[in-house]
Design goal:
84 residues, alpha+beta, 4-stranded mixed sheet, two-stranded antiparallel ribbon, 24% helix, globular, binds zinc ion
Length: 84
């Protein structure tokens, strides 16, 4: 993937394209895989079951990686996700 100025200057970008580039992302209620909570892969906002946590977001098919809606919007054009 070509890294452009936006990604270089955004603190949330930490090389996630290595495992997230071009993936299918599913918009759904947060469910965890053997964990109490999870964090957005980009901004580290917390997904979980407490009132202040995010309850919906985008995840990979295996529910392993979660991304909040804001980060999906910001990074979509670089990561070429297929949103389902
Ligand atoms: Zn985020």
């Amino acid at each position: 993937m070509k890294i452009d100025a936006f990604l270089k200057n955004d603190w949330r970008y930490q090389g996630q394209d290595k495992y997230l580039y071009g993936k299918k992302l599913f918009f759904k209620d947060f469910t965890c895989v053997g964990r109490e909570h999870d964090h957005c892969e980009f901004c580290w906002k917390k997904f979980g079951h407490e009132s202040e946590n995010l309850k919906k977001g985008y995840s990979t098919e295996d529910n392993y990686h979660w991304i909040c809606q804001e980060c999906v919007i910001d990074f979509l054009k670089y990561f070429k996700w297929e949103l389902l």
